[in-house]
Write a structure and sequence with these properties.
The protein has 21 helices and no strands. With 541 residues, the chain is an all-alpha fold.
Length: 541
């Protein structure tokens, strides 16, 4: 009897989704927060680590946990080893001149470099193996035995995110920008921190470790702000993004069945879907962290208000751009060899061409890496080269653009001009999305072909548009949701703190807003049988 009971419970638990947007996860977070507020001191960090492990095993599997544990051991031991080597430098440098100290430091850096390169090879090697395995094998598994037999590849949860954070941590220790963590459990807690393990943001371990060691006491306003942010994230994800996905996935599954009007609408809505999905997840994990007492790095800052390609990527997936700048772009751009080469180019070709060529190599490597980070295949490489070309081209033509605007007395601060710039940048993003959204370059060619093959403008009026996954009623719901999302971003762009404004409303009105938001999710959200609760778009990376 008991055996049957436990078998039934195991079956039920295995069938429960542990994604950020599952009801079970939401209930678990509320219980987790309730217990967290009752604990004090070190027990709170241990409780967070326990939640990390439960979430990781449930959502990512035991094999994935073994991989991330091995990664943490490598990162921890390498950091401590580099610290031990540098300790010798601190002893020997006493009494030396600054020049002698620099020479001695370079010698010690050479000794630490072998450990750094070995660690980076191992953690990036695991990441590359997963990427290649997903491309070649296709099937995933949670068993080392099946992986060895070639039946699938183990894909550790959040590997693309914790790999970059781990590499950044080791490079910061190597450059002596941060001290290595001495407590293994603290490092492992940060690496597996459940709110950001799936989709980031890509934070610095030393910043998160410092916050985990000094968690604030319960604060009603902070917890309310965190829960409000989660609620808004769920609206963006379940009501807007997942409803749009029903339409866009139908079109992109068989582009040849659709014409210009449907294709154009699908690629535009797909860009909005991606933003609502990814930023919605960031709001959910940011809200959970804020309720805990941890401030994660901002990952989005109203990207559709950007006026250029470069500015767009300073607003979209900010932590990935910051990582690429800190650990790829700047080390190349300021390296003595590269600076000497660009100095020679400046003497030979002048300031303008040398400045252009100075950006060429580091920018190219950044965007090749960014493309491969997002996915495998030629589509992602071309996507990276597309953004590389746009940013480099905008830098090249800036002097001509400035002269043109000055000659015709065009005022760049006019709202209409700024709006045109933002619309142009948005459609550049839409075009870039077409390289990958329909299955690679072949799908991209088919999208362009169908876009100009036949317009079928009448689909807007004869009702056939509403037969592809989203009916007329839900199209209006999504439209209202997109307008609301735009308004919220507009207010944020103007510096208006919406949650602070809501907190100042009378209690009945405030709770009317909360209940309206909750019922909106319940009534209009996409969930239930057949719905993949773990299907955040960026969760696949």
């Amino acid at each position: 009897m008991l055996e049957h009971f436990f078998a039934t419970m195991a079956y039920i638990i295995n069938g429960i989704e542990m994604g950020y947007n599952s009801v079970f996860f939401l209930g678990g977070v509320l219980i987790f927060l309730g217990v967290l507020y009752l604990l004090r001191g070190r027990a709170r960090t241990v409780w967070i680590l326990l939640m990390n492990l439960i979430f990781y095993v449930w959502a990512g599997g035991r094999a994935g946990l073994a991989v991330i544990l091995a990664t943490c051991v490598i990162v921890y031991m390498t950091g401590r080893r580099m610290e031990t080597i540098y300790a010798g430098f601190e002893t020997e440098k006493k009494g030396l001149t600054p020049k002698e100290q620099m020479g001695l430091l370079n010698c010690y850096k050479k000794r630490t470099r072998r450990y750094l390169w070995l660690a980076l090879f191992l953690i990036f090697g695991a990441w590359a193996a997963v990427k290649a395995g997903k491309l070649c094998i296709g099937q995933t598994t949670d068993s080392f035995r099946e992986m060895i037999a070639g039946k699938g590849i183990i894909v550790p949860l959040g590997i693309s995110y914790y790999t970059l954070s781990s590499a950044g941590y080791l490079l910061d220790v190597y450059w002596r920008k941060t001290k290595p963590e001495h407590n293994f459990l603290d490092l492992f807690t940060v690496m597996t921190y459940f709110p950001h393990i799936v989709q980031g943001p890509i934070g610095k371990y030393n910043r998160l470790t410092g916050q985990l060691k000094n968690l604030p006491k319960f604060d009603y306003e902070r917890v309310c702000f965190g829960l409000q942010l989660m609620l808004w994230g769920y609206i963006k994800k379940l009501v807007i993004a997942d409803r749009l996905a029903l339409f866009t996935s139908t079109v992109f599954a068989e582009p040849s069945n659709f014409a210009g009007t449907e294709i154009f609408l699908a690629v535009v809505l797909c860009a909005i879907e991606l933003y609502a999905d990814f930023s919605g997840c960031m709001d959910i994990v940011g809200g959970i962290s804020q309720a805990i007492g941890i401030e994660l790095d901002v990952n989005f800052r109203q990207p559709f208000f950007a006026k250029s390609a470069a500015e767009f990527w300073r607003r979209w997936h900010i932590t990935l751009g910051t990582w690429a700048k800190d650990y790829i772009y700047m080390p190349i751009a300021i390296s003595p060899t590269y600076m000497q080469w660009t100095w020679k180019l400046k003497k030979k070709y002048g300031k303008f061409f040398s400045s252009l060529l100075k950006e060429l190599l580091p920018l190219l490597l950044v965007w090749l890496f960014t493309g491969l980070w997002h996915g495998t295949g030629y589509g992602y490489i071309v996507w990276g080269l597309y953004w590389f070309a746009l940013i480099l081209l905008s830098h090249a033509v800036k002097p001509l653009t400035d002269r043109f605007l000055k000659h015709f007395a065009i005022q760049m601060d006019r709202p209409l001009y700024r709006a045109c710039q933002s619309i142009r940048t948005f459609f550049l993003f839409v075009i870039g999305r077409m390289f990958t959204v329909a299955g690679g370059l072949q799908g991209c060619r088919l999208l362009w072909k169908q876009l100009f093959a036949e317009s079928r403008i009448w689909t807007f009026f004869d009702g056939s548009l509403y037969k592809h996954g989203v009916d007329r009623k839900y199209f209006y719901v999504v439209l209202i949701g997109m307008i609301l999302m735009f308004c919220v971003d507009f207010w944020h762009e103007k510096g208006i703190r919406i949650r602070k404004t809501i907190a100042g409303l009378p209690l009945p009105l405030r709770w009317a807003l909360y209940l309206t938001a909750m019922f909106t999710i319940v009534i209009f959200g996409v969930y239930g049988i057949g719905y993949d609760a773990a299907s955040f778009i960026y969760g696949a990376f």
